[in-house]
Write a structure and sequence with these properties.
The chain is mainly α. The chain is 81% helix and 0% strand. Helix 1 packs antiparallel against helix 3. It is globular, with a radius of gyration of 14 Å. 12% of the residues are buried.
């Protein structure tokens, strides 16, 4: 499960940076209404909110307090699968542009 937390955190950081750059350059539009609202309030706030998820995950790893319950384990693995699919889709769109 530690690997899943690392993968989620890393994917989130990469996604945050790429999304931020894409939004700044006007190449993409944020599809998540909540994140779009946050970005329209302030772009740095958007980046901070996106990166806070990775910070929380790395905090669990740093203090060695990764929850060991099965629900957390399966949720983490499912999130990695979904996030990997979404990330691959974004990468495909970027290459296509």
């Amino acid at each position: 499960m530690i690997v899943a937390f690392h993968c989620l955190a890393a994917l989130n950081i990469i996604d945050a940076v790429i999304t931020f750059i894409g939004l700044k350059l006007g190449m993409i539009k944020e599809a998540n209404p909540l994140m779009d609202y946050i970005y329209n309030q302030h772009s740095i706030l958007f980046l901070a909110v996106k990166l806070s998820f990775s910070f929380i995950l790395y905090s669990f790893l740093y203090v060695k307090k990764v929850p060991a319950k099965n629900i957390v384990k399966y949720t983490a693995y499912m999130a990695v699968l979904i996030y990997s699919f979404v990330f691959s889709l974004h990468l495909y769109w970027i290459v296509k542009i």
